[in-house]
């Protein structure tokens, strides 16, 4: 499995430049709409001490559906929930930085851009909200948490 390529709902394997082209094509199909580009990561711990991470890129045509892309990564030495949550956020930030550059080059910087993090007020992760949201904001991205963080808690979660 190539970690650099993303899967599309059409069964294609795409790199980030191809995803930006797909985003551009999707927007050009209905340019009068509002669009958000969202990155989110979810993970699942495995029995062997490793964790499976899925990062999703969602292109939301506000009020009218969207498209998404996802990729798997495996990491070892992820021992705690805190380590997993940090790795999720770091993977999302890394991809968001890459996408932001490519989107700007493609003239798509006018789209809303969010990073969704799979933490919320009602779970074990509630104590980490401030620090994880803080690191996302420190990297100049808007952060969204549960229950609104659907790119992480629904889309990426579907492929973990």
Automatic annotation (TrEMBL):
This is DUF458 domain-containing protein. It comes from Candidatus Harrisonbacteria bacterium RIFCSPLOWO2_02_FULL_45_10c. The lineage of its organism: Bacteria, Candidatus Harrisoniibacteriota.
């Amino acid at each position: 499995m190539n970690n650099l390529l993303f899967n599309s709902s059409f069964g294609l394997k795409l790199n980030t430049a191809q995803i930006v082209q797909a985003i551009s094509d999707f927007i050009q199909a209905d340019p009068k709409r509002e669009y958000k580009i969202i990155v989110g990561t979810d993970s699942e711990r495995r029995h062997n001490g490793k964790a499976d991470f899925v990062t999703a890129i969602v292109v939301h045509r506000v009020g009218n559906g969207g498209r998404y892309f996802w990729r798997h990564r495996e990491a070892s030495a992820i021992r705690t929930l805190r380590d997993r949550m940090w790795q999720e956020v770091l993977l999302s930030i890394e991809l968001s930085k890459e996408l932001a550059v490519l989107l700007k080059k493609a003239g798509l910087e006018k789209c809303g851009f969010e990073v969704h993090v799979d933490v919320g007020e009602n779970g074990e992760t509630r104590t980490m909200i401030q620090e994880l949201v803080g690191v996302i904001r420190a990297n100049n991205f808007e952060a969204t948490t549960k229950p609104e963080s659907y790119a992480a808690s629904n889309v990426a979660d579907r492929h973990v």
